[in-house]
Amino acid sequence: MADSSNEERLLRTLLGGGSVETVVYNSPVGVGERLRKNLLGSGGAKATPYVYGCSFAQDARPDGGEIRLGFSWVSRDDPHEKEKPPAPGRRFDVSGTLGESGGNYSKLYLRCDLPGDLGPPSGRVLLRARASNTSNSEQKGSEEAMKQHLAFLYLMTQRVTAALGCENKPLQGEPVVKPGKG
Fold first, then answer.
1. Residues near 150 by Cβ (< 8 Å), separated by ≥ 6?
2. End-to-end CA distance of the chain
3. Which candidate, 111, 178, 181, places its Cα nearest to that of 146?
4. Mean pLDDT in order along the chain per 10 residues (182 residues)
5. CB 22: neighbour CB atoms within 10 A?
6. Among candidates 64, 87, 85, 72, which has minimal Cα distance to 26?
């Protein structure tokens, strides 16, 4: 990430400032490849395990927690499959995409229509993006922090949807985060 990017600005705010250490588990292309493989394996009939992209932590506070990004598929019929909603949690509209945040983590649920053999199974699922936040940031549970967390997740998920080749181009432009219903 470039130091002047919106992602970097949001990340520093979420972690409480300072320099950031990044650990990459899979590049966006690698996440996309594993998600495609998982989707073929499930046929779109069930949720798939998370594929982790990266984590971010403050260099100066090694036990200060981290923000970790993961991606998976969930059924369109029940995107919240057996997961507890964030507590205390809120729903948000993030540029037309369903977002949830509970302070310690945020999620986005979006359609990602894939071409070819992946078309039919991608029509039965939603891409679920999740950012956990175990940092000790003092503002973590505030509404403003939840909005920032969702905006950061949206921007980082743009990289994965581009790598996947979502034909419907679900995440375009800068995120606009508004309180949702429900």
1. 92, 94, 99, 101, 106, 108, 175, 177
2. 34
3. 178
4. 70 79 90 95 87 84 78 82 60 92 88 94 95 73 86 95 95 92 64
5. 11
6. 72
Query: What's the predicted TM-score (pTM) here?
Result: 0.88
Q: Is 80 left (phi over 0), alpha (psi -120 to 50) or beta?
A: alpha
Instruction: Provide the token pair at 101.
Output: 């945040």
Q: How many residues can be counted in the chain?
A: 182
**Whole-Å CA distances, 73 to 38, 113, 122, 147:** 8, 12, 9, 23
pLDDT of residue 46: 83
SS (H, E, C) the chain: CCCCCHHHHHHHHHHCCCCEEEEECCCHHHHHHHHHHHHHHHCCCCCCCCEEEEEEEECCCCCCCCEEEEEEEEECCCCCCCCCCCCCCEEEEECCEEEEECCCEEEEEECCCCCHHHHHHHCCEEEEEEEEECCCCCCCCCHHHHHHHHHHHHHHHHHHHHHHCCCCCCCCCCCCEEECCC
- Residue at token pair 């909005």: 147
Q: How far is 158 from 147, CA to CA, in rounded Å?
A: 17
> How many angstroms from the chain centroid is the CA of residue 42?
21
The single-letter code of the amino acid at 149 is H
